Amino acid sequence: MIDLAKKFLHENIYFELYHHRAIYTNEDALVIKKEQGFTGTETKSLFLKDKKDNNYVYLTFTMKQTDFKALGKIVGKRLSIVSSERMEEQTGQKQGAVSPFGYEKQIPIIIDEELLSNEKLVFAPGRPDQTMVIQTVDLNKIIQLLEMPIFLMPANENNN
């Protein structure tokens, strides 16, 4: 994994980084958010694969149900969640702490378009004991900097 904090500092991208006890559930994340006092929209990143084992990351709201049919339409391939074991083997990340960014190889990102209407996004930067907050306006700059192929999940495609 790329050190996102170092990369963002070097590129003058605003971020907040919080260190805390390891968290793996949405409930714990909300407790940490309150304890640490940061603000922003909680997100989750799903590490996905297609039949040819090409990976994708889907960035969406923490509590939103995923419409895999709609995701498949967007990328033109049927997608499924990578097993915890395989994900940890490939990325070094544990389930519940998947980062949307920072992979050594280019992994396409699928972004839930509804996230874009929020001021700040909260996510795990690949470690369960850290939380990162970025400004949504910097999302395109981050994606370009990391040279990530991008897909948008239109709001009307993901109404769960």
List the helices and strands and how they pair.
Elements: H1 4-10, E1 15-19, H2 26-36, E2 41-49, E3 55-61, H3 68-75, E4 80-81, H4 84-91, E5 109-112, E6 120-123, E7 130-135, H5 139-145, E8 150-153
Parallel strand pairs: 2-6, 3-5, 5-8
Antiparallel strand pairs: 1-7, 2-3, 2-4, 6-7
Produce a short descriptive summary.
This protein is α/β, with parallel strands linked by helices and 160 residues long. It is built from 5 helices and 8 strands, in the order αβαββαβαβββαβ.
Can you give a write-up of this model?
- Residues 41-141 form the YbaK/aminoacyl-tRNA synthetase-associated domain.
- One of its GO terms (biological process) is translation.
- One of its GO terms (molecular function) is aminoacyl-tRNA ligase activity.
- This is YbaK/prolyl-tRNA synthetase-associated protein.
- InterPro entries: ProX/PRXD1 (IPR040285), YbaK/aa-tRNA-synt-asso_dom_sf (IPR036754), YbaK/aa-tRNA-synth-assoc-dom (IPR007214).
- By secondary structure, this protein is α/β, with parallel strands linked by helices.
- It has one domain: YbaK/aminoacyl-tRNA synthetase-associated domain (YbaK protein).
- It contains five helices and eight strands.
- Strands 1, 2, 3, 4, 5, 6, 7 and 8 form an eight-stranded mixed beta sheet that branches.
- Strand 2 and strand 3 (55-61) form a beta hairpin.
- The longest helix is centred in the N-terminal third of the chain and has 11 residues, at 26-36.
- The N and C termini lie far apart (31 Å).
